[in-house]
Design brief:
It contains three helices and six strands; from the N terminus they run βββααβαββ. With about 140 residues, it is of the alpha/beta class. Strands 1, 2, 3, 4, 5 and 6 form a six-stranded mixed β-sheet that branches. Strand 1 and strand 2 form a beta hairpin.
């Protein structure tokens, strides 16, 4: 799994001009990509790391400040652009494999005590956020 984690002061995601997920307080936006070799254990470990990652104000974690997570599925994190100008998506897991692992990740974050807002898996989404810092970290499981 690959996660791009951004510390935000607020964020929201829209599908067809309808807000489907929103953070109105400090928290994290997590763009999550799944590859073929990923497992439920990978989702659990990555969620635990993100919940406890000390990147919020005062070197605290998102669970310590009472923040939230906005989780967005994003297969494009596994784009291969080494050849030509058209990315290859072969490293990204197909929907039937990726969606349950995305849901497992979200459930594991919630089990860690952090509320999760979600995008819509596989939808064309518009994500709006205010990156605080800016702080952006890439994590691989």
């Amino acid at each position: 799994m690959r996660a791009v984690v951004q510390r935000v002061s607020r964020a929201e995601v829209r599908v067809e001009d309808e807000v489907v997920g929103r953070l109105d307080r400090p928290g994290l936006v997590v763009l999550l990509g799944v590859t073929h070799e990923d497992s439920p254990d990978d989702a659990d470990r990555l969620a635990a790391k993100i919940v406890r990652l000390r990147i919020m104000a005062g070197e605290q974690s998102v669970d310590e400040i009472g923040g939230g997570v906005l989780a967005i599925s994003q297969f494009t994190l596994y784009a291969d652009t080494r050849k030509g100008r058209r990315p290859s998506w072969g490293a990204a897991a197909p929907g039937p494999v990726a969606e349950p692992l995305y849901e497992r990740f979200c459930a594991a974050v919630e089990a860690g005590g952090v509320p999760v807002e979600r995008g819509v898996f596989g939808a064309d989404m518009a994500v709006e956020l205010v990156n605080d810092g800016p702080v952006t970290i890439v994590l691989d499981s």
